[in-house]
Amino acid sequence: MPRQLVQLIAAASLLRMVLAIAVEFGNDEAYYFLYAVDLHWNYFDHPPGVAWLIRISTLNLLLTDEFFVRLGAIVCSAYGTVLVYRLGTVLKNEQTGWYAAILYTANIYTSLIAGTFITPDSPQVVAWLGALLVMHEVLTTPASEPVPRRLWLQFGFLAGLAILCKVHGVFLWVSLGLYILRFERRHLADGNLYLGALITALVISPILIWNIQNDFITYRFHSERVSGSFIHVDYFFQAVGGQLVYANPVNSGLIVFALWRMKTMNFMPEFSLRFVWVNGLPLVAVVSFLSLFNQMLPHWSGPGMMVLCFIAAAWLDERKAMADTLRDSRLLKASAVTAIALVVLAVVTVNYYPGTFGSHDKKKFGDDDFTLDLNGWRSFSREFRDWLSSQEANLKLPAGLPLVSNKWFPAAHIDYYVARPLNRPVIGAGLVLDLHQYNWLNLDRPPLLPGDSALCIVPSNYHMVLHDSYYLNFKSIDLLRVFYSYRGGSMSRYFTVYLLKGYKGNDQAHQPPFVRRKEE
């Protein structure tokens, strides 16, 4: 491995480690930690890949602070850089591989969203890149020779692992199928192709089995996220703009320029260009199209944009061959500087922005300020713990009351930062589609029985009308305390603590099939 690649990986990993310590969990990360706490073959939102990664990085939950929970993502990003270098090298040459590694490191999606924060994308990116390397070897096997069976099996296994992280890993098979149908139909007569597909089916079978047992709730949920009957042009531009930003604006610009120069420059072998097209465009095109009808998260097309960066890397290599090295160096530095600047800006904003740039309405103070999801929970946890200990010691509150939430967010944050240090459960009480995995977490936690009391924490940036929520499931509600959270010397939001009395047991999450298992 080239020395400069080792240095790049070491420097990037160090920066990611600092960031992993400096910023609190976002909603999703706190939620994915719960996957690892309660292992299943599948979850309401995603397959189990991220749960296994967290189990490994935390030494089976021995070390559970933010750094170790995120460590798996950092390691995956480092190894992903090696795979990108190798893929760029086989697509054109070592210089292209080096440029691709730099663009990968400067990519906000691969380096931050999947490379620092712990998400299902973190392990998926590695499996995806590994599958692409094997796919490349399959498709470059001379026509006069049979494709070795091990390659089909390896591809099937790695594609299965990618799907076990997020279901859109199926696009690996879509891309391979498109290439074979368009350029290499001879592979359709190779029985090992179907053996590889069988391996993928076996690897992902736990997802199917779990969904059969749970009325295909995962797919019913995700189908609602991508379906819609009206065209929303604003959603489309949000999705496209988000994809360009998440890939790094400079990287995206380089991709666009490289595509434009393809008209006059032959800077990539024909096969390699086809390979990049078929593995990059389908996912980006599908996400962009669906955004016309519903809101899409820009990182859903992250693997596709990651692959398209190889076109930019190959173009930069061609420019170097034309003695334009100085300008190329500046472009790569601009990409790296942009990534670092965006990360620094984000960290400063999250930790030090005075107050909130969200709503200042008293009822929903801080609403629409996404940075609050990554700030203030540690300090609130300490204040709440001290207050609760005092209340219980003075017999003002019964000892050991559970915490209740009617939505997976902020329930996951409360679970990780507040309930876990107190060694008490968070119980989901409300609608199934609002609680997500809490419907299953409830099954392995002490039951909330009719007549029970519980504590409830409501952050002001997740304002709710009590008469439309908790009053439906409890007989009475007492306001206990309001905790004010500050950032940069100004109030950013507040947390209201309620005592819920007389649980009715009538919420959807506590009806069949989401009822507590019988004790054996």
Give your account of this protein's structure.
A hairpin with a 2-residue loop joins strand 4 and strand 5. Strands 2-1-3-5-4 form a 5-stranded mixed sheet. Helix 4 runs parallel beside helix 7, helix 13 crosses helix 15 and helix 14 crosses helix 16. It is globular. It has 2 domains: 346 residues, no CATH class; 149 residues. Helix content is 58%, strand content 8%. With 520 residues, it is an alpha/beta fold. The protein has 21 helices and 5 strands.
Entry keywords:
single chain; 21 helices; 520 residues; alpha/beta; five-stranded mixed beta sheet; 2 domains; globular
Characterize the overall form.
globular
Portion of residues in beta strands equals 5-15%
Which percent bin holds the helix content?
55-70%
Class derived from helix and strand content: alpha/beta
Set down the secondary structure blueprint:
Blueprint: H1 3-22, H2 27-37, H3 49-57, H4 66-91, H5 94-106, H6 108-113, H7 121-139, H8 149-165, H9 171-183, H10 191-203, H11 205-213, H12 217-226, H13 233-246, H14 249-261, H15 270-290, H16 302-321, H17 325-352, H18 377-393, E1 403-405, H19 408-422, E2 426-428, H20 432-435, H21 438-441, E3 454-459, E4 474-487, E5 490-503
Parallel strand pairs: 1-2, 1-3
Antiparallel strand pairs: 3-5, 4-5
